[in-house]
Amino acid sequence: MKKKIIGALVVLGAVVISAGFMGEELSTQEAAKKSVVPTPQETLPDKEPSISADDGDGNQEEKSEVQDTGAEEPIFLNSEITDEIFNRMYGKSYKEDCRVPREELRYLKLAHYGFDGMVHQGEMVVNASIADEVLEIFKELYEIRYPIEKMLLIDDYDADDEQSMADNNSSAFNYRVISGTSKLSNHSKGLAIDINPLYNPYVHSNTGTKACEPANAAAYTDRSLEFDHKIDEADECYRIFTEHGFSWGGSWSRSKDYQHFEKVDG
Ligand SMILES: [Zn+2]
User: Fold this and answer.
1) Which of 117, 252, 260, 263 has its CA 20 to 30 A from that of 180?
2) What is the whole-number distance in angstroms between the Cα of residue 190 and the centre of ligand 1?
3) pLDDT tens digits, the chain, 266 residues: what are they?
4) Is residue 36 part of a domain?
5) Would 190 be classed as within a structural domain?
6) Is 8 a member of any domain?
7) Which residues lie at CB < 5 A from ion ligand 1?
């Protein structure tokens, strides 16, 4: 009996020591990675199950996960518009007559999975009132490995929405009118976000005849067809945005903007 108790104490001691060691290892990693978001293990069907007895958020595997994809560390960051960013935007998405103060906008760094299955570092400018929520949305999209081909500031396309969409670039802020109208778009305040626009075109009759934007998206206007990267009500991107209170342009009654999510009430 006594032997058993001693034996149990030895085992317990070993567990305590190893648990203490693991805790230290985690906190060291924790300190090193700052804003890096862990990759969840349980949502990745193609991954082997985690063998570590960690706390379930997958911190221990995170580093090797990023190395596996051969990509840089995933970063999610919310910052004010620095002079460097503003210089990129001014005269392009931030027009000379822009009535939205620079202080009301935020620059986000958003890691995402690309169509190549690799982690990419995206960027986006949105309204400050939705910036934290947008960060959360993209963390959720990242966690489920939702594929977004590219996410560059639209200024890299001279703020030309057609060019950006045709290149399947996902973006948000752009001080402009709604295509075919004189009304300011919700993109003008950074309250609207377009996702994978080539596969999810804007289909409208604003100028009298039916048109799709980008013009090279005609193959994706028939939403009864099945194809990759299609946003519909069964899509995870739709689910996550609408769970965060965004409305979807694919639900509009007249024109349909399948790439478009907006949250105008902050
Ligand atoms: Zn849009």
Assistant:
1) 263
2) 10
3) 444 544 444 444 444 444 444 443 434 444 344 444 444 444 444 434 333 444 444 444 444 344 444 445 789 999 999 999 999 999 999 999 999 999 999 999 999 999 999 999 999 999 999 999 999 999 999 999 999 999 999 999 999 999 999 999 999 999 998 888 889 999 999 999 999 999 999 999 888 888 999 999 999 999 999 999 999 999 999 999 999 999 999 999 989 999 999 999 75
4) no
5) yes
6) no
7) 192, 194, 260
Collect all residues with Cβ–Cβ distance below 8 Å to 65 and sequence separation of at least 6: 39, 58
Q: Is the link from the previous residue into 214 a cis peptide, with omega within 30 of 0?
A: yes
Residue in the structure block whose two tokens are 């973006």: 171
- The structure's pTM equals 0.73
138 in any annotated domain? yes
C-alpha 76 to ligand 1 mean position (Å): 22
Q: How many domains does the chain have?
A: 1
- Whole-number Å distance, alpha carbon 236 to ligand 1 midpoint, is 18
Full residue range of the structural domain in which residue 109 is found = 59-262
Q: Is 18 exposed, middle or buried (0-12, 13-18, 19+ CB in 10 A)?
A: exposed
CA neighbours closer than 13 Å in the CB half-sphere of residue 175 = 15
Distance 261 CA to ligand 1 centre (A): 7
| d(CA 118, ligand 1 centre) in Å | 25
